[in-house]
Design goal:
The chain has about 375 residues and is α/β, with parallel strands linked by helices. Helix content is about 30%, strand content about 15%. It contains ten helices and 14 strands. Strands 3-4-5-10-11-12-13-14 form an eight-stranded parallel beta barrel, surrounded by four helices. Strands 1-2 form a two-stranded antiparallel sheet. Helix 1 runs parallel beside helix 2 and helix 3 runs parallel beside helix 5. It is globular. The structure holds flavin mononucleotide (FMN).
């Protein structure tokens, strides 16, 4: 008799051993200091959540050009590496595992966030609808500058350097941010990629730069320490593709061939409905031969069922981890979950960040 896997059982993703299958999804909280480095408050925040089988950190810009929000902690300076080291040490001391999400936002930025007030860069000069979060508040996003093909090797170097820095900082691996309308997603999808060179047009051409990024990151570490996040049908950050299945089946085939540690898939609209009525990216489950990390609006029942049936190997929870540092314990005991306060999601101090109690602390209070 074969037993069905359980949400609370151990699993291995590439080289990374997880004590359970509950993953903390990447959550930008915008609490870095003026050097774009994490502080001791962030060390405490991740330490509190170390019972997750795996923590995926908030998106971490690989360069100043890759930054799109105020107060996000980068992974491109020595100081940033030193500070992240305190986070990884704290999580490991508490028995947890942690990978860093490598982020280039592409067009979802603003001159206020760029060096010398430069324009954000993108595959094509297509302006996104929406606002940028700057130190001076929310500002309209602008029309980006289209990258010259000759600039792309420099961005690959930034990804390589960030990966080397992640190793130096003591992370268990890296997750390439290929989701939510940021740079890699902008290359993949035809609403944002209007190029006529080798990086645009056909699906093969649109996949070229994202796969070059994957190969650069794998080359800087190895496949067993690298995962990637995608959001094939999510409209987050004003993005769309006229035929996502035609793009993501071959893209995921190419990822599968590279033997990555895991594929992290936002199923549906990020933070919204799981079923959008069109093609369902869970179809990709049979295309990717490695571990599947499901995400988006999962609750306990859905996560237990997905793991038991093999629809997912692990499940990433985002918003529930904000208000429930001991989410794994609460799920295990089927205890009630606290609701997060949206007003403190981005920016600020300990309030709404490190002051959410565990079940034990709440009952002692
Ligand atoms: C405050 C906040 C910050 C987020 N930051 C990131 C991020 O840095 N990188 C990323 O890939 N997704 C980010 N997301 C998306 C989440 O990882 C996740 O996909 C989304 O919340 C849906 O999962 P959930 O229903 O479990 O919350 C963020 C979501 C929220 C609410």
């Amino acid at each position: 008799m074969t037993s069905r896997p359980d949400l609370f059982s151990p699993v291995r993703l590439g080289a990374i051993e997880l004590a359970n299958r509950v993953v903390m999804a990447p959550l930008t909280r915008s609490r870095a200091d003026k050097d774009d480095a994490v502080t001791d408050l962030t060390v405490e925040y991740y330490r509190q959540r170390a019972s997750a089988g795996l923590i995926v950190t908030e998106g971490s810009p690989i360069s100043r050009q890759g930054k799109g929000y105020a107060y996000t902690p980068g992974i491109f300076t020595d100081l940033q590496v030193e500070r992240w080291r305190k986070v990884t040490d704290a999580v490991h001391a508490a028995g947890g595992r942690i990978v860093i999400q490598l982020w280039h936002v592409g067009r979802i930025s603003h001159p206020d966030l760029q060096a010398d007030g430069a324009l954000p860069v993108a595959p094509s000069a297509v302006r996104p609808e929406g606002k940028a979060f700057t130190e001076a508040g929310f500002k309209d996003l602008v029309t980006p500058r289209a990258l010259a093909a000759s600039e792309l090797p420099g961005i690959l170097d930034d990804f390589r350097r960030a990966t080397v820095n992640a190793r130096r900082a003591g992370f268990d691996g890296v997750e390439i941010h290929g989701a939510n309308g940021y740079l890699l997603d902008q290359f993949l999808k035809d609403k944002t990629n209007r190029r006529t060179d080798a990086y645009g047009g056909s699906v093969e051409n649109r996949m070229r730069f994202p796969l070059e990024v994957v190969d650069a990151v794998v080359g800087a570490w190895d496949k067993d320490h690298v995962g990637i996040r995608i959001s094939p049908v999510s409209p987050a950050n004003d993005i769309d593709d006229s035929d996502p299945k035609a793009v993501f089946v071959p893209f995921v085939e190419a990822l599968s061939a590279r033997g990555l540690a895991y594929l992290h898939v936002i199923e549906g609209a990020t933070g919204g409905p799981r079923d959008l009525g069109g093609w369902d990216p869970r179809d990709l489950r049979s295309v990717f031969k490695g571990a599947w990390m499901g995400n988006n609006s999962y609750d306990r029942d859905l996560a237990m069922e997905a793991v038991a049936t093999g629809e997912a190997d692990v499940v990433a929870f985002g918003r529930p981890f904000i208000a429930n540092p001991d989410l794994v314990e609460r799920l295990r005991r089927n205890a009630p979950l606290a609701e997060p306060d949206r007003a403190t999601f981005y920016g600020g101090d300990a309030k709404g960040y490190t002051d959410y109690p565990t079940l034990g602390e709440a009952s002692a209070a």
